[in-house]
Amino acid sequence: MMKRDEMLKVFKRQRKDEIVVAVYMAAQEITHIMPHDLNYTFIGAMGQGSSHGLGLALGRPDKKVVVFDGDGSLLMNLGSLVTIANQAPKNYVHCLCENGCYETNGSVPTPRAGQVRFADLAKTAGYKKTVEISDLAEWERELPNILKEEGPVFVTLKVEAGEAYPENFPRLYSLEHREKFRRTLASS
Questions:
Q1: How far apart are CA 132 and CA 37, in angstroms?
Q2: Beta bridge partners of 101
Q3: Domain span at residue 54?
Q4: CATH of the domain at 178
Q5: Residue 170 in contact with residue 178, Cβ under 8 Å?
Q6: pLDDT tens per residue, range 89-106
Q7: Cα–Cα distance, 22 to 166 (Å, whole number)
Q8: Whole-angstrom Cα distance, residue 74 to residue 97?
Q9: Number of structural domains in the chain
Q10: How far apart are CA 38 and CA 34, in angstroms?
Q11: Which of 37-51, 135-149, 164-178 holds the top average pLDDT?
Q12: What pLDDT does 42 receive?
């Protein structure tokens, strides 16, 4: 199992100009680990990260879109897997941070934690490629290939909490940062 923040640091080192959509704990961590004007981060819309990522991928087929979703969040919107597969955006990478709990809400266990095979659900839904990774070295080794794959790609990342980063709700809801995202997206 990987520490989520260490997994995100590996991604940061290999990131080019991808649009990154992150929800909940990954969103909080990304604001500290890899601030970037093409980060689309939010909380408060549980289950919607995959759908927001789909909209961005369809709207900007020229840019890779990487979603950092949570297992608890995805459980709230499993239908998005079928919709994403049906739309088949070639530029879509859906990374699921699986930790078996609703971490933001007090680490309450998700139903059937550790028994649901999310990669199998994505494959059955019709994702072009699915991968499961639980080792940081494997993630670092496979990430360049994952980012080159034609999507939609689904990556289950077995993670646990790492370093505690301060929550920054004003940053996540900042109109200034949303406008920077819109301007950067329009000009890139």
A1: 29
A2: 109
A3: 2-187
A4: 3.40.50.970
A5: no
A6: 999 999 999 986 566 666
A7: 16
A8: 10
A9: 1
A10: 10
A11: 135-149
A12: 77
